[in-house]
Amino acid sequence: MQVKDNKIQDIYIVPLFIKSLETFQAIYVLLRNCIFNDALNLTRILFEEMINLGYCAKGENKCKQYIAKEIKNKIKMINAAEQHPEEFPEELFQRQPLSDRKKELEKMLKEIGRPKNVSTEQMARELNLGRLYQVYYRMVSNEVHSNPESLNKYCKVGESGYIREFKFGPEIEENKVSVIFTGIEIMLIICKFLSDYFSIPKEEDYLKFNEIKKEIDEKYKNLEL
């Protein structure tokens, strides 16, 4: 994959792919060491990398919407720093006047046409991944956001229905081998986006990857997940 003429999509798609590879490798390492819960949490990050990459690949305007999200977040951070300077490190104010930095960001936003806001859910829907977002992404978000349901694994409940004791350490690690299959599935979707955009991997290679994935699924379908 080569970046030609500083094409804006290429500049963001290639690093997003590299980042997704690193995330997948981290998931694999955690699973090899039986750290299943954190590996599951990382699939949420991998999912977002997939969505961002696919969205940037849809067109230059979509890529600009992705870029604009970060610019707008930085402007919000500057506004927060101006309102509550005591909450931010002094170095932030010493590097450059915040008003000047805000002007630079506003200029960048103007140069890319002030794209409208777009959420991760909306991006997923435009990529025909809305169902996957509703089902899988929301499920893993429970764990990442420490919602009440995510705390169940730390409690051992007795016959009376009351908590008998709290658990921690290796005891709370749920053996979810399915996490690696989820990671592979997400990487295959990323490969499809890359194939459509760069023609790498080639369509026949992508289809071959899918066939291998199906064979693995069939081989381990009765495995305790």
Report on this structure.
- The chain has 225 residues and is mainly alpha-helical.
- It has one domain (8-219).
- It has helices at residues 8-32, 36-57, 60-83, 90-95, 98-111, 120-126, 130-144, 178-198, 203-219; strands at 155-157, 163-166.
- The protein has a two-stranded antiparallel sheet.
- A hairpin with a 5-residue loop joins strand 1 (155-157) and strand 2 (163-166).
- It is flat.
- The mean pLDDT is 90.
Stretches where pLDDT falls below 50 for ≥5 residues?
A: none
Compute the number of structural domains: 1
Compute the CA-based radius of gyration.
Answer: 21 Å
| Percent in strands | under 5%
Mean pLDDT across the residues is 90
Approximate shape: flat
| Helix/sheet category | mainly alpha
Question: How many E strands?
Answer: 2
Distance between the termini: 36 Å
Largest sheet: 2 strands, antiparallel
- Percent helix, as a range, is 55-70%
Spatial sequence of strands, sheet with the most strands? 1-2
Number of helices: 9
Secondary structure blueprint with pairings:
Blueprint: H1 8-32, H2 36-57, H3 60-83, H4 90-95, H5 98-111, H6 120-126, H7 130-144, E1 155-157, E2 163-166, H8 178-198, H9 203-219
Helix pairs in contact: 1-2, 1-8, 2-3, 2-6, 2-7, 2-8, 3-5, 6-7, 8-9
